Amino acid sequence: MPIYSGSCFCRNIEYKLHLDSPNEARTSLCHCRNCRKAFGTNYGLTAKVPKDAFHLTTGKPKVHAADNGSGVMIYREFCDNCGSYILEYGELAKDHFRYICVGSLDDLEALPPKGEFFCKSRASWMPEVPNVFHKQTVKE
Ligand SMILES: [Zn+2]
Ligand SMILES: [Zn+2]
């Protein structure tokens, strides 16, 4: 059973992911406006994992909850000391999944992307990631 470790920048928050295999995680880029704003970059990069795979080992993130723009609450957890973004989950996924910010993992190569969402909002200068799925929004 692979175990992946991660933390915020200042390490006040540390966590471990317990997965049955790396394939249990679905890492994806998202080019939507919400991700851009939340990550402070031109896309978000998260690994979807089962809720029970995520184990906080040090500290406790601050939670920010807001309407995602379509009436669904989205929860974002981050370090209240250094500001690093750790994970997110929507109201519907709340009891089942966590979306881990991949940059917070100690091994950046551990969970490579399987796809891209909201490609219609991709920055014009950013090339597609090859050999992964590409969806214009979430569903399509
Ligand atoms: Zn921190
Ligand atoms: Zn997004």
Bound molecules: zinc ion
Helix run count: 1
- What number is the mean pLDDT? 95
Tell me roughly what share of residues is in helical segments: under 10%
Tell me the domain tally: 1
Say what the CATH topology is: Metal Binding Protein, Guanine Nucleotide Exchange Factor, Chain A
Estimate the strand proportion. Answer: 35-45%
Total E-strand runs: 11
Which CATH-level-2 architecture? Answer: Beta Complex
Largest sheet: 8 strands, mixed
Level-1 CATH class name: Mainly Beta
Protein name: Glutathione-dependent formaldehyde-activating enzyme/centromere protein V
Keywords: Lyase, Metal-binding, Zinc
Pfam families: GFA
Domain CENP-V/GFA: 4-115
Task: Explain what you see.
By secondary structure, the protein is mostly beta strands. It has one domain (3-134): Metal Binding Protein, Guanine Nucleotide Exchange Factor, Chain A, CATH 2.170.150. It is 5% helix and 41% strand. It has one helix and eleven strands. It has an eight-stranded mixed beta sheet. A three-stranded antiparallel beta sheet has the order 1-2-5, with no helix packed on it. β7 (73-78) and β8 (85-90) form a beta hairpin. The longest helix has 7 residues, at 33-39. The model has no long low-confidence stretch (mean pLDDT 95). The structure holds zinc ion (ZN) (2 copies). Residues 8-10, 12-13, 79, 81-82, 84 line the site of one zinc ion.
